[in-house]
Amino acid sequence: MKYVKCPKCELNYIQENEVYCNLCNPKMQGKSITDAEVEYETLLQLRREAHKAYTQSTEMFRAYRRNREAR
To answer: What is the 3-class SS of 26-64, one letter each residue?
Structure first.
């Protein structure tokens, strides 16, 4: 893979098949970087909640199987 400078900011390097770098791409879509960060943080929070729910259900299943209380 060959790396080239981003044509928009000329600071960051991108792969040859990409159009803009990660910093310029949200700006080109009419979003600011903070909007992209908020979306990313929201996605991370949803994944954490899903993992927590999965962990709790797995723990309850194991407790039921062993016929004892959950931790």
So the answer is: HHHCCCCHHHHHHHHHHHHHHHHHHHHHHHHHHHHHHHH
